[in-house]
Design goal:
Length: 263
């Protein structure tokens, strides 16, 4: 997918699409070669790449740096970049400066968590020519307010609020919405009700698209095993085995071989 029009077409044609997070040039080059439709430079990079406990530690400088690296490798894949923690809550000027930094770095759209207090900002960003993706359900920047990584929208009132928030985001101009960690039935109802596509993570089978954190779906995180995650590769085990093989071969002098040297 190259533009927001492709997202709309997928929804109309009822074609599912895939998104992965990506944080660096090397992996972006591999994603560019793949059939994965679109890329998210997620603020999960604070955890996945920088080892912080949550996404609150992603700064606009980090987001722009990683977005630029991804953009250099991503070919013609559509790139969405996360607006980092608090960047939408400090007034229009701060928000628009951050939007500008992400777009100049190479993003094609920005993602904003939560609808509360964001309708006017989303309208303004969209009117400024920048596509906005919404994010509802478990919104990791509110992890402390939510009391942890809990499934959202299970109560009647929670489900109603989520549906209402989805409409607010759609009406404000979002071209798609990520639904994270909500019941399958609710994700299905939101998907059915909206004209714009939904992208699920831990939101079941009914959403228009799916998104996963690249390192998780590759199997890089042996201790992270939520029910919604499928590990499509055993990257942790394979990498560990390769490192140990290399170390052993250096140690027992089977690497390098004479043919690895230069005359
Ligand atoms: O930052 C991120 O990785 C995300 C996905 C979980 C959707 O927002």
């Amino acid at each position: 997918m190259k533009t927001i029009l492709d997202f709309a077409h997928k929804k109309v044609k009822k074609e599912k699409f895939s998104m992965v997070t990506c944080y660096d040039y090397g992996m972006a080059k591999i994603v560019a070669e793949s059939k994965v439709d679109t890329i998210l430079v997620g603020d999960s990079l604070a955890q996945v790449i920088h080892g912080f406990p949550n996404t609150l530690h992603a700064t606009i400088e980090m987001m722009a740096l990683h977005t630029a690296a991804v953009a250099r490798g991503a070919g013609n894949k559509f790139i969405v970049a996360d607006m980092p923690f608090m960047s939408t809550r400090k007034g229009l000027e701060t928000a628009m400066n951050d939007v500008q930094k992400l777009m100049v770095a190479g993003a094609h759209a920005v993602k904003i968590e939560n609808a509360d207090g964001h309708a006017e900002l989303i309208k303004h960003i969209v009117e400024s020519g920048v596509p906005v993706m919404g994010h509802l359900g478990l919104t990791p920047q509110s992890i402390h307010q939510l009391g942890g990584p809990k499934i959202q929208g299970r109560s009647q009132s929670g489900a109603e609020k989520l549906m209402n928030d989805a409409f607010i985001m759609e009406q404000a101009g979002c071209f798609s919405i990520v639904l994270e960690l909500i019941p399958t039935v609710l994700a299905g109802k939101v998907t059915e009700a909206l004209k714009i596509p939904t992208i699920g993570i831990g939101a079941g089978v009914e959403t228009d698209g799916q998104v996963l954190v690249l390192n998780d779906m590759l199997g890089m995180s042996p201790d992270f095993n939520p029910k919604f995650l499928k590990k499509f590769s055993q990257a942790h085990d394979n990498t560990l085995a390769a490192l140990n093989l290399y170390a052993s071969e250096v140690s027992d002098k089977s690497f390098p071989k004479p043919e690895n040297g230069y005359e």
